[in-house]
Write a structure and sequence with these properties.
metal-binding; DDE Tnp4 domain-containing protein; metal ion binding; globular; two-stranded parallel sheet
Length: about 140
């Protein structure tokens, strides 16, 4: 399991990759926000999370039981029912940015598709190496 944050330039800003694969996302986030060297969120900034997680200080999840997916807003010409739908539309747009980033990033992780299974400690280092390579290429080869 990997916990990652990124910026609007599609670069990773923070990566935690040492949890077992069965750990729930809320456990990763909760634990990491309280660690001394864990994820720090600058004042006035927020982390967007999916609807499986709940809102908390500087963590924003979409409103439940309210239109969310961008596809749900097509053909409605700004016909929002309330402010919660507007929030969810913007949340979904930003989430699409994250999904696009991971679509670009995943090919850098081809090493994990190879036959040998790596020890957990090695996997953690490989994830960080892939992220570092990805960020370097995003900076140096903008259109890679």
């Amino acid at each position: 399991n990997v916990l990652a944050t990124c910026n609007f330039d599609l670069k990773f800003m923070y990566v935690l990759s040492r949890w077992e694969s069965l750990a729930h996302d809320s456990k990763l986030l909760s634990n990491d926000l309280i660690r001394r060297n864990g994820l720090k969120v600058s004042e006035g900034k927020y982390i967007l999370v999916d609807c499986e997680l709940s809102n908390r200080h500087q963590v924003l999840a979409p409103f439940r039981d309210v239109r969310y997916h961008l596809q749900d807003f097509v053909d409605h010409d700004n016909d929002y029912q309330n402010a919660n739908e507007v929030f969810n539309l913007h949340h979904a747009s930003l989430r699409n940015l994250i999904e696009r980033m991971f679509d670009i990033f995943i090919p850098y992780c081809i090493i994990f598709k190879s036959v040998p299974s790596f020890l957990s400690k090695t996997q953690t280092k490989l994830v960080l190496a892939c992220v570092t390579l990805y960020n370097f290429l995003r900076k140096k080869c903008r259109y890679d």
